[in-house]
Amino acid sequence: MPLNFVGSLVFDGVESVPYLEPIVKWSPYLAVLGAIKYWSRGASNTWERNLHGKLYIITGASTQSMGTSVALDMARRGAQLIILCRKIDEWSEEWCEQMRDLTGNEMIYLEQCDLSDLYEVRKFATKWLDNSPPRRLDGVVVMSGDCEPWGLQQRKSSVDGIEIQMATNYAGVFHLLHLLRPSFKAQPPDRDVRIIVTTCFLQATGKCNTEDPLWLNVPFKSSREFFSSSKLQLSLAMLHLQHLLVSESEKNAKDGRSGKNVAVTIVQPGLMRSPSLRRVVSNGSVFMLLVVYCVLLYPILWLFTKSGYRGAQTIIHSITTPELEELNRTDDEVKYIVNCTAVKFSRKEFEDKELQKRLYENTVKQIESVEKKMAIQRNRSKKNQPKESESKKEKLSSKTKKNGTKKD
């Protein structure tokens, strides 16, 4: 076939090639579109490392987008996965079984832990730590997030009274990692432990509120402000978490522990066609989702954004690259990974260690205050439950007595 095509060009001329003119006319435009798509798809992970015998806690794995792609890749590499989900029901159990069938890995487990509920986070962390000897833990991969429609007019709060995005993206993740610090420090000094926390490029537009880190007293103006600020504060708090892990290990150095075997990494996977983007574009409307997102904007979004699989490449790179191992690191600072490459933070807050410390400590205090308040409410509700049940029993007994007298 190629020889016939070349022969026709040589002996019969260009006119003999069918559809050559439209091909030549449109080929520059197609080349430009191809170059844009090649650029927007981002870099690929090149490290082919097995994860056999390793155990990871994962959040946000059931999104059917980036999170699911990361979980599939890690399971295929042989890792044992503890996947945190808001609710364990028939759908989640069926999804977990499907994951096991697709990867051939039976060591995929679900644990209920709604990150927007501080009480559930504490219950999971307490159960995890309540084990002797300490359980193996090779890392935590945080991919969960809540992005409310930007046109939202009213504040949506969690069960603890925290704005839902601030609760899910910041308070819950911070609480989980803060409580799991003993587990990180209990790992052998030669074990490579990685804490991977995903963020969003919108963190560059966020605000850091060190005095009210949970934004309990901040008036609600726009959901975008709360989303971007939750991502910014989480990244800043992770810098201080790394500092705490290293400094505490150096003070209580035993068996050659330096604390540098636990590496905190912030990953920015890029702009993806994710559930969050769909909610923002559609503004929470089914009509907008079907017409605007799926019909009008999808060709443009396909061209300029990543798929969930492509977004997962940077996270898999952060899990498998040997550059983050203690032996290959020149410092103990938190790395910021974008497109499988370490880059520098752009905002000045990432260089202000005093601000990071103040944010971290005030967040711990405010979370403790919220937990105490909610514990009091739970105790009151438990005390009221017996009274209600007794009144119901009294009503039932009175009814049975009346029925008995009528029958007699």
TrEMBL record:
Membrane-spanning intervals of the chain: 284-304
Region (Disordered): 371-408
Descriptive protein name: WGS project CCBQ000000000 data, contig 00104
Pfam families tied to this protein: adh_short
InterPro entries named in the record: NAD(P)-bd_dom_sf, SDR_fam
Compositionally biased intervals (Basic residues): 398-408
Lineage top rank: taxon: Eukaryota
Biased composition (Basic and acidic residues): 385-397
